[in-house]
Amino acid sequence: MIPTWAQLVYLACAIGFVLALKGLAGPRTARAGNLVGAAAAVVAVVVPFGYLDLDHVPLILAAIALGSLGGVLGARRVQMTQMPQMVALFNGVGGGAAALVALLELEHMGASTAEFDLAATAFTVVVGSVSFAGSVVTFAKLQDLMTSRPIVFAGLPVAFGVALLATIGLAVWVVAEPGVPTGVGLAVLGLLIGVLLVLPVGGADVPIVISLLNAFTGLTVAAGGYVLGNVVLLVAGTLVGAAGTFLTLLMARAMGRSVPNILFGALRGGSTLGAGTASDRPVRSAGPEDVAILLGYAERVIVVPGYGLAVAQAQHTLREIVDVLGERGTRVDYAIHPVAGRMPGHMNVLLAEAQVPYDQLVEMDDINGEFPHTDVVLVVGANDVVNPAARTDPAAPIYGMPILAADQARQVVFLKRSMRPGFAGIDNELLFDPKTTMLFGDAKESLAKLLAALKGL
Amino acid sequence: MSEPVVWLTIFVLSVFVGIEVIAKVSSTLHTPLMSGANAIHGVILLGAVIVTGSTDSTLALVVGLVAIVLAAVNMVGGFVVTDRMLQMFTRGPGARRPRKEAGE
Fold first, then answer.
1. Residue B3 burial (CB count, 10 A)
2. Which of A70, A177, A298, A359 has a CA that sits 20 to 30 A from residue A437's CA?
3. Mutation site for A-interface testing, chosen from B12, B17, B41 by largest number of A Cβ within 10 Å
4. What count of other Cβ atoms lies within 10 Å of the Cβ of residue A284?
């Protein structure tokens, strides 16, 4: 039995986790909330040393130190643009840890163990493994270790179905006759399912799957808490599971997609497989000087920043351009699409890092009405979030996603490296529109030339 | 109440708390939110410590230590990276001056 004092400390830790998520409701309380959560986690981990007579304590402490060091180094070194894959990786190792814990629990279980406990353990092994393998694949996709496009092969739905049935069968076996070898078999099947689940997901949908896998890991931790009889694991895991599921639905809605469509859309054929190659249709391109004139004599300009801007680290140059335009009397705002970047709110993080004033960032719903009165829209490193196909082409993978109405402005200037399609892998009709001007090149170089030309006006 | 029902009650109430708490988060903070929730499930470290500390087979010990390392990466890394993101949203006076002076 867990002594009462320890149970009360666990309760306090659970409250700490609720406060941590609650703090994230606003930028002002977010950081404090996160620190409360971290403190609660540290306390929760220390408690069992107080009431249990644990063996191997030096080894355990060494393992904690090693893992913490790895976590801190990874978290410190990662660039803000790589944040989604870092979250995926951390989530994956968490899922892996939960699966291993459940396997070890299985060792102590026998035929006398309650069936529900065994079922919860089997659940933890499977879903933890799915989360681990799935997260590793999403990491590889986002880190460009493999193509971020959907991977579908002929037998995939069959393989997935067989793996799923085998898993259910094996899980029933584990409940009837608990044993570690069967548990290991479950883990292997879970890994396979994780890979098969994420392979067909591509492009802009990958971050949504990360959020879903995050929810999965939460649920495995909750199930692990039930098995271990530990309330803080149950509450923390359930909180994350519920929050993650809800967040996944919010993200899917922001992109006009449904979760089943994201997961299985590619299996049903064609529609999420966009073009991966550049189109050879004619476009109008211009030099920095021409674009400078366009911008310099405009009254109203809206900037649409995208992931390409952040990758090129060109935010500071862009900010200077906005300053120069402001001095010339032009009204300039940044239009922020909710899924600009690689995750919802990612662009806000990237621009906050670049010290762009918070109040110049205007959310999509607030700025969309202004595009018809806008002289020039400057799209820097974004593509999918201004693609009119989301409104007009039911066959497009992004169909139904709310977009920034850049196509309604009088002029559109795209800063792009090449004509290659964006993250979603589809052509953008707006690029071929007569009112669109392309300025090809690296965003940072192009913006520097543009800035110089503007200053010379 | 029987024990399983107590657990079920805690579970169901936690689901509602989770949804209630998230419903109020603005989309601006969705990325740190995902990362923060991620860090919280790293508390599986607690379970890993308990099972590792009560095992006597060498193989189980090794597996347990691997689980501890993984869980610690998840928990510590998750909180640190979330803090890094949130730091950028703090708008203290002069918070954004140093870089501009550096001419970046």
1. 8
2. A359
3. B41
4. 12
Record: contact A345-B29, CB cut-off 8 A = yes
Quote the percentage of chain A above a pLDDT of 90: 55
Q: Where are the alpha helices (H) located in A342-427, listed in sequence order?
A: 346-353, 364-367, 389-392
Query: Measured between CA atoms, how close is A6 to chain B, in angstroms?
Result: 13
Alpha-carbon gap, residue A274 to A260, rounded angstroms:
19
Contact in structure between A368 and A404 (CB atoms under 8 Å): yes
Determine the residue type at A270. Answer: G
Question: Is the CB of B76 less than 8 angstroms away from the CB of A72?
Answer: yes
Q: How wide is the angle at C-alpha B90 spanned by C-alphas B87 and B96, nearest 5°?
A: 95
pLDDT value, residue B104: 34
Residue A61: phi, psi to the nearest 5? -65, -40
- Substitution target from B16, B38, B62 for chain A, most A beta carbons within 10 A: B38
pLDDT digits (tens, 9 = 90+) for A72-94: 999 999 988 888 899 999 999 99
pLDDT score for B91: 56
Half-sphere exposure of B5 (CA within 13 A, CB side): 2
Tell me whether residues B54 and A64 touch, CB distance under 8 A. no
Return d(Cα B48, Cα B38) in angstroms, integer. 17
Tell me how close the Cα of B93 comes to any Cα of chain A, in angstroms. 12
Is the C-alpha dihedral spanning A362, A364, A365, A368 positive or negative? positive
DSSP A284-310: -B--HHHHHHHHHT-SEEEEEE-HHHH
pTM recorded for the entire structure? 0.81
pLDDT tens-digit profile of A161-190? 999 999 999 999 999 989 899 999 999 999
Confidence at residue A427, expressed as pLDDT on a 0 to 100 scale:
79
Taking CA–CA distances from A114, the nearest residue in chain B reads B4
Residue located via tokens 């989770």: B18
Answer yes or no: are the C-beta atoms of A90 and A70 closer than 8 Å: no
Could you please report the per-residue DSSP string of A111-163? TTS-HHHHHHHHHHHHHHHHHHHHHHHHHHHHTTSS-SS----TTHHHHHHHH
Return the SS3 of A330.
coil
Burial of residue A285 (CB within 10 Å: 0-12, 13-18, 19+) is middle
ipTM of the complex: 0.87
